[in-house]
Write a structure and sequence with these properties.
about 260 residues, 8 helices
């Protein structure tokens, strides 16, 4: 065979990862998937009990994980969280800056507090982790992978009330591309994943309560279903592994064709 053996192309064995917002939803799925593919994982969440439950589940499966409580909007807490992961694992090879919130209101009614809170968590929180982990990788000579969780709201307009959320995700795409260029000389890859609506308990309940919302969501997704946390975890494995070794500065859209319309 002329093609090299690619059987371990997606392996994360020997890698150490930080996943923010790892206590639930997409972050939980990514943390568990990374562990299944061989990585040791620092599960970071503002909800310490949720982070610990995920980390304990990973440890019960025979893999290595720690839980770290962190408010990503607080730069000092971010520095402490990264230091805790480094102390535990020695090096960090992968970051998934996934923590984020929404706080919806019509644009003309949105308060400054709503605007600022979403920016602080979704954009500044990702930046604090990107910078702290990027510095660590540069100092240690680690050709690592940094992945930011974006959204299709960074690419297309959707429902009313998302001005703050969409603004953070559009900025996150720009940050991703800029860091990819700046840190390419260190071998550090920086990418983003932009999901469509993802099936969580909250979204499912909203769709059950509002059939019109359900029709709107599904009517804009050509494949006819919402995303799942596992759909996003698959993309995160790809971008963290050797399979994605030449991919940087990219916003990987995982949306069932939503943005192709």
């Amino acid at each position: 065979m002329k093609t090299p053996d690619l059987s371990g192309f997606f392996s994360l064995a020997g890698k150490h990862a930080i996943v923010t917002g790892g206590g639930s939803g997409i972050g939980l799925a990514v943390a568990e998937a990374y562990a299944q593919y061989g990585a040791a994982v620092a599960v970071v969440d503002v909800d310490e009990a949720a982070a610990e439950a995920v980390a304990q589940g990973i440890r019960d499966s025979g893999r290595q994980a720690i839980a770290v409580r962190c408010d990503v909007a607080d730069q000092a807490q971010v520095e402490t969280a990264v230091a805790a992961a480094v102390e535990m694992f020695g090096d960090i090879h992968v970051l998934v800056a996934n923590a984020g919130i929404g706080d919806r209101a019509p644009a003309e009614e949105m308060t400054l507090a709503q605007w600022q809170r979403v920016l602080d968590i979704n954009l500044s929180g990702a930046w604090y982790f990107d910078q702290a982990v990027g510095r660590h990788m540069i100092e240690r000579g680690i050709a690592g992978s940094i992945i930011n969780t974006s959204s299709i709201t960074s690419l297309v307009g959707i429902t009313t009330g998302n001005a703050n959320y969409a603004a953070t995700k559009g900025a996150l795409n720009a940050l991703t591309r800029t860091l990819a260029i700046e840190w390419a000389r260190y071998g550090i890859r920086v990418n983003a994943i932009a999901p469509t609506h993802v099936k969580t308990a909250l979204i499912e309940q909203k769709m059950a309560d509002d059939p019109e919302l359900a029709r709107f969501f599904l009517g804009n997704i050509p494949l006819g279903r919402l995303g799942t946390p596992e759909d996003i975890a698959g993309a995160a494995i790809y971008l963290a592994s050797e399979a994605g070794a030449l991919v940087t500065g990219h916003v990987l859209v995982v949306d069932g064709g939503h943005t192709a319309r």
